[in-house]
């Protein structure tokens, strides 16, 4: 997969583009040239004009905000259309709080900061199993991150629609997740919120790790903050001495085990247990239970045990776990689609 060409968006209020003597206003943006082409998107809001620098000259970049495709507690994800090159992109957007102090303002500020942190994490990453960062825009009303659009949805969405995956599909997806993780960990980045909702799948069966809002760059060997989603969290995060001891990238390996369990069963780890019970079980260093009736092969059981080693030091790194015999696919295997 070719590395995308870097586009540096101009950071100033008025810039001359290729069009002689024509000036445009621009917000602070950085972007990369995007990849796949797409045909049509129905604009819902007016198009935006962005100014960029490509090589040694300026280029006018138009993008159109399209339909809503995802919604969180504070942010939304829209389809976007790059009217300059015909590419469909994904736009993660959060509104900047502008009203007087209220109950939502602190949460919104936190979400805006997460989006800024996600940009810092993503902008220097190039890997086929990590969603590609394409650009960033911040203005008085919104903060936007422009990302590669992955049309196949998430692992969670596919499980909800189709049920448990065939074992070879599980092996393929797990291998790709571990390759992406190995790359992240080589950059001293912990994802910290790896789950089926954050793994995107394209129509060719390529998995891409996404949602880096609470990822952490390790400036020291370990980190100490309580972050993640309970069902996929590792037990060391619930340790009484977390502030002193901390944790490292092995929390992501535990999360991989949880995602694999999901792909085997079609249900999230710990299923519908109350969050307090999950926290209590993790504090006791228990791993998610295996449902009655799930018959694992010897190799699958060994792989599960590797992911759910209670002592994080005993969990293999992603670069080693990706070579586990369980993940071996038949010669000539191709992704069958969903």
UniProtKB/TrEMBL annotation:
Belongs to the protein kinase superfamily. STE Ser/Thr protein kinase family. MAP kinase kinase kinase subfamily. Keywords: ATP-binding, Kinase, Nucleotide-binding, Serine/threonine-protein kinase, Transferase. It comes from Pholiota conissans. ATP binds at residue 92. GO terms for molecular function: ATP binding; MAP kinase kinase kinase activity. This is Kinase-like protein. Pfam families: Pkinase. Residues 63-327 form the Protein kinase domain.
